[in-house]
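About this split. The held-out portion is used to measure sequence recovery: a designer receives only the structure tokens and must propose an amino acid at every position. Recovery is the fraction of positions where the proposal matches the reference. Here is one held-out target exactly as it appears in the evaluation file.
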């Protein structure tokens, strides 16, 4: 949607400032796609996820566009962004982005940061206000309508713009006219914690690790314990259909949006270092039970389509009842561990592709590998199966094959071989193609003798 709108401005805007800035924004979005995809498949953690987009490349709405831009993937849909790109006379994909889009290094690590925290301190730091109605677009674009920090402003904006006829705002009308003058709306938002509070797309620090055979990506320590909406917290990708991820569903709806596979009753505390990820769940109800919020389900479940893998082998743990499930696609491997006992869905559309672990507290571990570095699939299975995994409540210690001792906890730092791994304050991007600090207005991307310089201050685009 964003690329389609931007390309429309590139093509038809008469204002040169709008035209060049839209052009540079398309460049940045294409770069984001290139460093977050696996052979044209958007397989990383991202927001506003839909079930059909994340469960396989067949539903990935960016697949056709990436095929046009980078030449990898397949043509599988007709969308406005692809149509605009194919017919554009004014936008040309920078050669350096084309090169990056098809580059497959032996190991690739990308750190990146998006958005800002929903706090008064962050608002002041970046020149915004959480009370001035003139800044409402900043917070509403993050989905922060009923959040306690901005709900007063939301009410004031609706009043000013006469928006009470919009269905999404009607529930706030009666209660707001009583509580807004008393300054009690933030307190009520915290107490009731409506589902809309989970839709906020606040600051995220993300890591992606990719090899020619597999990719693993997560949102580091992203709002653990809070309800979510369509935040896709982590994913392992080994092929167009061979994707694995875990959620605590916030809804039983399987139709696509904020549902069984794309909502979060409560979000985990995640941490990833290169090819190893630990995900800790601590599922607790927050707020006063009401019709405005849905209670979290008391289980976590993994999407693990066994039919999409060349091999799937299980190694149960006699000590915990949980254990490892290993999968192979070509020369790529994955091991997924649940500390709690799990069972496979045996009927319905999720039969054979859903691992269910009952319980409010659980630790999941995911590690990806490949033949070139880990030997045979049998060797990979043996190494992970015999590795030490110790779980004490919401603390875990894992002797990760090829990495070393990894420790993590609900309230503890993430360490690898005793060294704390930062989970916050990432740059905008940090990878082999660029290093850009968050908030920068100048961007430089270089690869194979090609470059792209974008200067939003002087409105210069240099290829």
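Reference sequence for scoring:
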């Amino acid at each position: 949607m964003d690329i389609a709108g931007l390309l429309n401005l590139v093509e038809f805007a008469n204002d040169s400032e709008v035209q060049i800035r839209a052009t540079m924004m398309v460049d940045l979005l294409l770069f984001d796609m290139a460093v977050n995809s696996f052979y044209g498949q958007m397989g990383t953690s991202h927001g506003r996820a839909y079930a059909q987009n994340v469960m396989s490349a067949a539903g990935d709405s960016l697949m056709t566009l990436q095929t046009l831009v980078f030449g990898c993937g397949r043509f599988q849909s007709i969308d406005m962004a692809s149509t605009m790109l194919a017919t554009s006379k004014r936008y040309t994909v920078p050669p350096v982005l084309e090169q990056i889009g098809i580059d497959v290094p032996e190991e690739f690590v990308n750190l990146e940061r998006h958005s800002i925290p929903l706090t008064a301190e962050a608002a002041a730091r970046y020149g915004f206000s959480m009370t001035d109605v003139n800044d409402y677009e900043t917070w509403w674009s993050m989905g922060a309508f009923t959040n306690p920090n901005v709900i007063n402003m939301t009410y004031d904006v609706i009043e000013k713009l006469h928006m009470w006829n919009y269905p999404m705002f009607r529930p706030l009308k009666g209660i707001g006219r009583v509580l807004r003058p008393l300054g009690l709306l933030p307190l009520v938002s915290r107490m009731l914690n409506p589902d809309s509070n989970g839709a906020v797309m606040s600051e995220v620090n993300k890591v992606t690790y990719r090899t020619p055979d597999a990719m693993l990506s997560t949102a580091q320590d992203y709002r653990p314990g809070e309800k979510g909406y369509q935040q896709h917290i982590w994913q392992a990708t080994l092929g167009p259909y061979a994707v694995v991820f875990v959620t605590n569903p916030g809804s039983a709806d399987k139709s696509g949006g904020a549902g069984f596979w794309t909502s979060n009753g409560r979000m985990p505390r995640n941490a990833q270092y290169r090819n190893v990820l630990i995900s800790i769940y601590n599922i607790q109800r927050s707020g006063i039970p009401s019709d405005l919020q849905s209670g979290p389900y008391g289980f976590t479940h993994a999407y693990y389509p066994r039919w999409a893998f060349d091999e799937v082998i299980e190694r149960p743990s006699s000590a915990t009842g949980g254990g490892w499930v290993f999968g192979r696609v070509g020369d790529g491997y994955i091991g997924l561990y649940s500390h709690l006992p799990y069972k496979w869905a045996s009927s319905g559309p999720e039969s054979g592709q859903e691992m269910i672990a009952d319980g409010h507290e659980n630790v999941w571990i995911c590690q990806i590998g490949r033949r070139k570095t880990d030997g045979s699939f049998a060797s990979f299975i043996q190494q992970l199966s015999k590795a030490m995994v110790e779980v004490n409540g919401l603390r875990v210690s894992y002797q990760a094959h090829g990495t070393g001792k990894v420790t993590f906890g609900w309230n503890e730092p993430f360490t690898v071989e005793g060294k704390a791994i930062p989970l916050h304050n990432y740059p905008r991007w940090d990878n082999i193609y660029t290093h850009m600090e968050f908030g920068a207005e100048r961007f430089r991307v270089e690869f194979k003798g090609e470059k792209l310089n974008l200067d939003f201050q002087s409105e210069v685009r240099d290829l």
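Annotator remark: The radius of gyration is 23 Å.
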